[in-house]
Design goal:
The chain is of the alpha+beta class. It contains 10 helices and 8 strands.
Length: 263
């Protein structure tokens, strides 16, 4: 087998393993949701709420600040980030977790294509961001990255998208909680021209948007989506993998346009 073939096999095996890890994480999350639901039923019967509060408390970091919704947030309660024209006739929904290794592969392959599909005004992209991997993998990086992304969104949708892309390009190994360090997040923000304003830095350091990140993550938990990445167009699921590889930009574009009836 040639060196190039060895590299292709190695990449394919790595992708298969990442996909397996993410599927396993999704199954664990389903079990957590079922367990919390069971506690909720018992609480309704017995009039006890402490168990539910305790079960949820470990899932999310807390901040002293009250809920602050970033400027430019959209959707129910400001829990969505919209890229493209708000009145576009078709909607692509993208469900991701900043610590999700398979999301990184999807973004590397089709992140630019996702943005490009909004350019003619026919499709807008709604990002629904999760943080369940903090519980599955332990840590707080998903929540902290999401809060920092909220600070970027407050600076502008373009700043959010650029920071979103930087986070995925610099995603730490899934076994590490690199995004749990706000100083590291601020270092990465330095890669986005004009993002590190005094207001942005203060918001990240103070955890201004952590309550918002918790709210966004809870909204994802209520969405019925059980794994990341997930992409839907006008409610129709899009296949992100073809065999053992991420779909090409051409394949992804064709699926999106077909689902939106633009072909």
């Amino acid at each position: 087998m040639s060196q190039n073939q060895n590299k292709r096999v190695s990449s394919r095996e790595r992708l298969q393993e990442l996909h397996r890890v993410e599927k396993a994480a999704a199954k664990r999350r389903q079990r957590i949701v079922v367990a919390v639901s069971s506690v909720a039923v018992l609480a309704l019967i017995g009039g006890v709420t402490l168990a539910i509060t305790s079960a949820k408390k470990d899932d999310k970091p807390t901040a002293a600040s009250a809920l602050v919704i970033p400027a430019n947030a959209t959707g129910d309660g400001g829990t969505v980030i919209t890229l493209g024209k708000a009145d576009a006739p078709h909607t692509m929904e993208v469900y991701e977790d900043f610590r999700c290794p398979v999301c990184k592969h999807f973004e590397a392959a089709n992140g630019a294509t996702t943005a490009k599909l909004t350019e003619d005004g026919q499709i807008k992209v709604d990002y629904h961001l999760a943080a369940f991997l903090d519980k599955n993998l332990t840590g707080k990086g998903s929540h902290y990255a999401l809060a920092a992304a909220g600070a970027a969104l407050n600076e502008g949708v373009d700043k959010f998208k650029a920071f979103h892309d930087v986070l995925y390009a610099n995603q730490p190994d899934e076994r590490e909680d690199g995004f749990g360090d706000v100083n590291h997040l601020l270092d990465l923000a330095g890669q986005v021209p004009g993002l590190k304003t005094d207001a942005f830095v203060k918001a990240v350091q103070d955890g201004t948007y952590l309550p918002w990140a918790n709210k966004v993550a809870e909204k994802f938990n209520d969405s019925g989506v059980t794994g990341t990445p997930t992409v839907k167009v006008d409610g129709k699921p899009i296949s992100l993998f073809a065999g053992n590889a991420v779909v090409s930009p051409e394949q992804f574009t064709a699926q999106v346009k077909q689902a939106a009836g633009l072909q």
